[in-house]
Amino acid sequence: MYLSEVSPVSLRGAVSSVYQLVITISILIAQIVGLHYVLGNHTYWPYIFIFPMFFAIFQVITLLFCTESPRYLIGVKGNEQKAEQSLKFLRMSDDVSADMTLMKSEDAAVKALPKITLSDMYKSRQLRIPLIIALVIMLAQQFSGINAVIFYSTDTFEKAGLKGDNPKYDTIGIGVVNVLTIVSLYLVKVAGRKTLLLIGFGGMAIDTLLLSLTLYFADQNDFLPWVCIILTFIYIILFAAGAGSIPWFLVTEIFNQAARPTAVSLAVPTNWIANFIVTLTFPLIEAIIGPFVFLIFVALDVVFFLFILKFVPETKNRTIDDIISEWK
Asked: Which of 67, 157, 223, 323 could form a disulfide with 86 if both were Cys (CB 3.0 to 4.6 A apart)?
């Protein structure tokens, strides 16, 4: 929410995508640190839990140097002078009149509306529809199967027939590909959010179908395990192009300042609860139906593709007022 509010409209998607980029870098670091000859062994694994402490301290210190959100200063604090100072710092320019005018007009429109409560999010059609979209998009990100692919990739590659340390190194390869999908930062500036989501979920549906079939026949051909790796790499690229970063800032783009905090506070826990469900249930379901577990993600990706096609609006280079006017 903060990244979305401090970014100019033209760069809102790219800046907000940095959030997902840093997650992918962190996953790669965790995969490397988790190798047996680093810290992933019986002796040193407890030291892995020291790292989050240092990152938390780092974040607390650096947040002290971050300027407050100008939208918050205008809309909540009513302090236009500090908002202007914040904008000058963020834009590195003394001429921020256009941004100030836009934010003040949006704030005036928000203040003309009654204060939004949690119950209002469900009662008002203008808020209920984007809230449903926000929650479904967050569920879609996790139920696409991304964390099942990343968390259990080593186990999946071993079952596909790879021997020795190959599965572990291939898992790190997935982490590298995940980081290299930084190209998504540029894609959100060029292509529409909806377009990228459709390409991502449509492509992931096809890819996971092929992955399921390849895993099933992997023991019949020595080359098929390597096909599994290629399909997994393609899956990571497709995920990063759409579902990886867009849901995080799409939620902030379809709500005004009054409803945004409540919407985000509902959407983000939904995402992590879905993450928890997938992480917990994937190995249990896989133990029962084997490689056909990925067919579940195929079906879900198709459902999410159709939902996005019909209900999700395009938000690229559009103001909040323009977007939310669709549901009036």
From this structure: 67
Give pLDDT tens digits for 120-135.
788 877 788 899 999 9
d(CA 317, CA 159): 46
- Tens digits of per-residue pLDDT, 182-193? 666 667 667 788
* Token pair belonging to 98: 């256009």
| Among 22, 13, 36, residue whose Cα is nearest residue 190 | 13
* CATH number, domain with residue 226: 1.20.1250.20
Interior angle at CA 176, CA 171 and CA 177, nearest 5: 95
Give the H/E segment covering residue 219.
none
Rounded CA-CA distance 64/234 in Å is: 40
Tell me whether residue 7 is in a domain: no
Instruction: State residue 19's pLDDT score.
Output: 77
Residue 226 domain boundaries: 118-327
The distance from CA 308 to its chain's CA centroid, rounded to whole angstroms, is 15
Taking only the tens place, the pLDDT of each residue in 138-175 is: 999 999 988 888 777 777 667 666 666 666 666 677 77
Q: Give a yes or no: residue 26 inside a domain.
A: no
Spatial contact of 83 and 70, defined as CB atoms under 8 Å apart = yes
Question: Is the residue at 200 inside a domain?
Answer: yes
Q: For helices 293-311 and 193-216, what crossing angle results, to 10°?
A: 160
Question: How many domains does the chain fold into?
Answer: 1
Residue 85: inside a domain, yes or no? no
d(CA 294, CA 215): 10
- Distance (Å, rounded) from C-alpha 54 to C-alpha 225? 39
* Model pLDDT for residues 68-112, shown as the tens digit of each residue: 999 889 988 889 999 999 999 998 888 888 889 888 887 887 777
Contact of 235 with 204, CB cutoff 8 Å: yes
